[in-house]
Write a structure and sequence with these properties.
Blueprint lengths: L16 H8 L6 H8 L6 H7 L16 E6 L3 H11 L3 E6 L2 H10 L4 E5 L7 H9 L9 E5 L5 H8 L4 E4 L4 H19 L5 H23 L5 H16 L4 H7 L5 H19 L4 H13 L9 H4 L7 H8 L1 H10 L6 H9 L20 H16 L10 H9 L7 H18 L1
Parallel strand pairs: 1-2, 1-3, 3-4, 4-5
This protein binds fe (ii) ion (FE2) (2 copies).
One fe (ii) ion binds next to helix 12.
Amino acid sequence: MRGTSPVTHSKGSLHEIEWCNRQWRSPLPGAAAELSHRLPFLRPAGMIDLLRSGADMESTGKRRAGRSRICVVDANARFRAEVRDALTSVYEVQELSEQGPALDAISLVPPAAIILDENVIPNGGLALLREIGCVPELRKVPLICTAPHERSVFLADAKGLGVRTTLIKPFRRHVLLQALSGEINDRVERSWLRIEPIQQAALRRTTRVFNELADLISEGRPLRYDTVSAACEPLVEAVMAGNFQDMLEGVRQHDNYTYVHSFRVATFLSAFGQAIGIGRSDLLILATGGLIHDVGKLAVPWDILNESSRLTDRQLAIVRSHVNRTREFLRNSPGIPKGAVTIAEQHHEKLDGSGYPLGLKADQLNELARMATIIDIFSAMTDRRIYKEAMAPEQALFTMTQMKAELDQHLLAVFRDLLLATARKID
Ligand SMILES: [Fe+2]
Ligand SMILES: [Fe+2]
């Protein structure tokens, strides 16, 4: 593989492709209309606003889910097309080839990131790079420079001007996606400064501890419960105050999907726990369990986790192995409470025994395991992924009500009522 490594690697993620294949892509004829008829109270705008993590849920396609605009500036039309194809489900791509029009477009509405090649009409990428550097509003826009060979003078000059990430053509799609992820997340995390302090602290502290998990796993060191539960304290405070919309919104553009998914699971699980009367110390266990429930995914290759087509049996086995990897990790972390371990070990089990890794069923699954499965599925369905749009929360809930043999429908109804109550509070 050619190309320099991006600064930040977007670690693994939950890949529920088996769900995609079996459930999410199944046609739901007239689902929206039927849902409105059956559950008309699921339509208030506040419900949508609260839950649209990762996406705006416009089925019209006028606003695609959670996209950011990326400007690719390159005189080579084939390369621009390749970049557009690579990013099509994640970003809106604006193609530009000439220096003047490119500067105009970038200045008019600064994009989320710029991919700038050395080949720009008429004076090359360096001339445009210098012009961009002269516009104060553009200095903070993430920028990735590309060239066809490592000895490119353009890349050397770009680094000299402060560009952190460079790529050598040709590069694989995931290399570009990871490079963009590293650049854009930095900007997203700085945007959290605008939200309420407690919710901001929830995002910052969980991000920090989540990043440390990868080091712990790779170095074979145990996870300390007091460390991760302390990081979850602001999250639980926000949930107990009934005010967690901003942090769900704030996390939605973060490109580390495992973190986004885990943060959402931690938030929804805590809220679920509070709704059924669980106290603060146990809410911390729920939040901790949610945050660490998929850490085994950090050992699964990125390209498998983000595979857009149906997984092979081998790939599926690798994805599913994340539960056992998580269990191994937690076994080496003796202070983790049993409740958090249950969430991690059993969030893919189902009442009818069709889940994994053990195929537990019915009475073998306690209330906590049933809650974890509901929250994990709901979160995964409403997450935005590289390979799929987010599902509208109403549709996710509706789909889950059809899973009568697999999910505890009483608990699902409690969760649905919790979401509605929260939405009404915000309206
Ligand atoms: Fe999982
Ligand atoms: Fe998960």
